[in-house]
Amino acid sequence: MAENNLDEVDKQLLALLGSDARASASALAERVGMTRQAVTERLDRLKRDGVIQHYTVAVDPEKIGLTVRAFLAVTLLPACTDKQEEHVIDLLQRSPWVRECYRVTGDDYFQARIVVPEIAEVRQLLLDLRATGVVQSTRTLLALETLFEKTSGQFLEQVLGLT
């Protein structure tokens, strides 16, 4: 379902769930001025259409001991095979510290965001990547301070034009 197929109620529901994924259908219905059944049907459609992928909880990494945030750029050797590339992707995906990873343009192949308890875990991840034999280089940027992180609700309100 393309964004332009979302009506204002769909957008409101997405923003409300982005702020509180545990909101009940009754509470959502009250906020958007619909019946609980109508909201439930809309949520089912949004899930079926793949707009809503899953419900989640936001956790402050520092409150659970993950105080180091970093961005890791990975460049592979030009002769790297598809199978070797998949091995690197799998290594990143299996790492508990990698929050997200993107294939990017430019000299780098991948850009990963990592959150770890200590710098030693960053070092170990770099060693693991280099041990694959196909990583040409890595660049690590340590985050000194988090200036802001938008909640899903804030993000959705802005991109869906609800603010």
The outline comes out as elongated
The tally of helices reads 6
- Radius of gyration, rounded? 20 Å
**Level of helix content?**
40-55%
Report how far apart the termini are. 22 Å
The count of β-strands is: 4
Strand content: 15-25%
- Average pLDDT confidence is 94
User: Which structural class should the secondary elements be placed in?
Assistant: alpha+beta
Spatial order of the strands in the main sheet?
2-3-1-4
SSE string, helices as H and strands as E? HHHEHEEHEH
Low-confidence stretches: none
Main sheet attributes: strand count, strand direction, barrel closure = 4 strands, antiparallel
Describe the protein.
The chain has 163 residues and is α+β, with helices and mostly antiparallel strands. 40% of the residues lie in helices and 18% in strands. The chain contains six helices and four strands. A four-stranded antiparallel β-sheet has the order 2-3-1-4, with helices on one face. The longest helix is centred in the first third of the chain and has 13 residues, at 36-48. The chain is elongated and about 60 Å long. The model has no long low-confidence stretch (mean pLDDT 94).
